[in-house]
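User: Please predict the structure of the protein below. I'd like the answer in structure-token form so I can feed it into my own downstream comparison script.

Assistant: Understood. Taking the following sequence of 341 residues as input:
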Amino acid sequence: MIDSPQEERFDRIVQLAQLLFRAPIAYISLVDKDRQWFKSKVGIEANETSRSVSFCGHAILEDKAMVVPDALQDYRFAGNPMVLGEPFIRFYVGQPLRGPSGHKVGTLCLADHEAREFGEHDVTMLGQIGKLVEREFTLLDKIQMQIETLKAKEALEKKGQELEKAVADLSAEKQNSEFLLTNIFPGNVANELRANGKVKAVGHEKATVMFSDFSDFTSVAATYNPAELVEELNRAFCLFDGLSARYGVEKLKTIGDGYLCVAGLQGDPVEAGGKMLKFAQEILAFVLKRKGEVEASGKKYWNIRIGVHCGPLVAGVVGVKRMAYDIWGDTVNVAARLQQG
């Protein structure tokens, strides 16, 4: 079944599981000795991953659903690249699936960017949905599939209104959003660009800007091979991106080893400034911790310089090809000078 075409019947089951449990990520994973391959998926871009970094490689060894309430607190997954980087998994549950031969062949999985609990009743319901997948694996006819679906609907009757609302919300989101656009631009900017084909520059009386870069970067980088250097930078910037999302900080761009972000373009600018400071403290703590770990292994590691300043600025989109959302003004310049000083 691995590498087989995408099929609507599996997509429907995955969407049902996602909507029922309000999970941003849901998928059916088929696992062999080297990799996991996604037969159907929602909320995740990859088509496959190495088994060595997969949660499902662990879940398939269990006889019932494996629940990981908080991956950062689980020694098996705390350093996993799918936790520290995209898709930033914190919660995971995987229901083992058996093929026609009776052997376990994969998992039905849910994941979230936030830690959460998953009770026994939820485990039972996920198991029932897993049986729908197993029925499809054995190619039962449509009548049998309808019977199983009705059984699942009866078990989920109390959540019918929530499911109906979730379906409506999902439909509206699919009609009004494009992933690539919203990934590049802040939400309100993406909406304006989609509606008008351009974005008006906006002045903000008070916003908080942060510049950071790695000091001694050139000399330290010379001691790494290219693959090691990119891997270490990616580790840091993936963590920065995850923290920026948590604190409502808008990442603007990376320039070499530099990272530029802004807060307070929407909402309470004072509160946003406080969140920016917490964000800066967390990335500083990460760099200091990582420096200790790397230097303990006998390699060199860089320090970080951070400049933060609050004041007026202008924000807008420039360019036609590879358009960029950027900010300008003395506030930006002061933050840059503080970082360089």
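That's the full token string. The mean pLDDT is 88.
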